[in-house]
Amino acid sequence: MPIRSADVVIVGSGPTGSTYARIIRRDWPEARILMVEAGPKATPEVGRHLGNLPTAERIAAERMAQGPARGKTYDPITRAEWEARKAGGHDASLQRRPGLFFSNTDAHDDAAFAGFAAASVGGMGVQWTAGCPHPSKGERVSFIPEAEMTAALALADELLGANRHPFPEDRGSDELRARLAAIFDAGRPADRRVQPMPLAFTVTPEGVTRHGTDHILGDMVDEPAETFAILPGTACRRVLHEDGHATGVELVDLATGETVTVAAGSVVVACDSLHGPQLLHASGIRPAALGRHLNDHYLINRYFVTDIAGPLTSMSWIPSVDATEFPFSVTLHGNDPANFPFPEPVEGTLAGMGLFVPADPSPENRIVFDDTRPDWKGLPSFSIHAPPSAADLARIDRGKAMADRIAHALGKPLPGFAAVKLPTGNSLHYQGTLRMGETDDGSSVCDRHSRVWGFDNLHVAGNGVIPTMTATNPTPFIVALASMGAAHIAAARRGVTAAA
What we know:
The protein is of the alpha+beta class. It is 23% helix and 22% strand. Strands 1, 2, 8, 9, 10, 11 and 20 form a 7-stranded mixed sheet that branches. Strands 5, 12, 13, 14, 15, 18 and 19 form a 7-stranded antiparallel sheet that branches. It has a two-stranded antiparallel ribbon with strand order 3-4. Helix 1 runs parallel beside helix 9 and helix 4 crosses helix 9.
């Protein structure tokens, strides 16, 4: 590790860490930026989406991204698990997800919160499904002006390469959306009507290219190490700080055990909603709200058959509106019965539905750290306490009923299959643990620029900063918030270098 100082150290190489790097470079061209990633470089190019790799290479890259389970082949779904899923019961195979690993110590059954994570250069940004919907007005941060948020979301679309209608020739999906619009569009704002799901895709006659963090970083991936470097296989053990000022980071090479201190002018903790709080806790930075208000969309899946001619290539979206009228975010897409793990009779065009149900943010839903048991990176291990509230359970039941209503409106549910609530955590959209607040009143971790309260140069990023109750996929939202934090760093720090 020859690097001993940087103007900005970014811990985490996913979409928000990459956004910080890209916007700081835009606004502060001479900044020396160091990005730290606990996982390996699993793809030939920095930040390339795993979905763009040939099958064998993709499988190998997924296994490299599994942190403490690196290289492990997860057991395939069994017939008993498949039948349990069909019946709406617990299917343990849904907690064995290639490319991911459990980060908490207590996830093993349907009652537990499955804290999935990925560890490779690009983080979740090389594995995500590329959905780029914007949050509803009620899901946005109330103390950020609407015009500023709208502009930041437009920038997020640009960074992610969002395509608002990637498959314009898909007539079957057009018909499906027309049927849904006749049911749901009346009285909705124009931006919340039934529409194609925006996707971070480039579509060519040769096929689809999914956008990873390489799209966000752009030309930065070719910069010399003196100006931008990524350290893979390197864990940040703690953020060093004194009197409300982050002075640097303590890093360890996970292969050799070599430890080094890197001085930093600013530090950005962008290592997801679970590991961001873990790092702050290990660093002795423990605001009252740290790791609390943990919530995740509950995810309901429903298969149905329709008389609409397929294939349904496009993904269709029924946006959420508000917590009362329509709190769900619903995606619908074509399915190939050949992809089922076991043969199932299907008559008609098979489609799948994913319905996100929002959860109540509660300070009692939290990460619980164990300082006596280190994890694979040498940081405190943790468990998760996040039971559903009574209101959550009622919304889940309402969501299942809505999934059935939609299936019947478009055709009929696939015989033998129930509406299934996946084990909590399977949406991968964990939020609230680093939540943003308007004032430092103990209920939040950071300010509107994602700067940790009480610090002048320490920022956090990722789903964890979202303070609101949401159902919408969060990626454009968190990239927008990260762009604001990055611009704030550049404005405050440009011309101020870290100590050599």
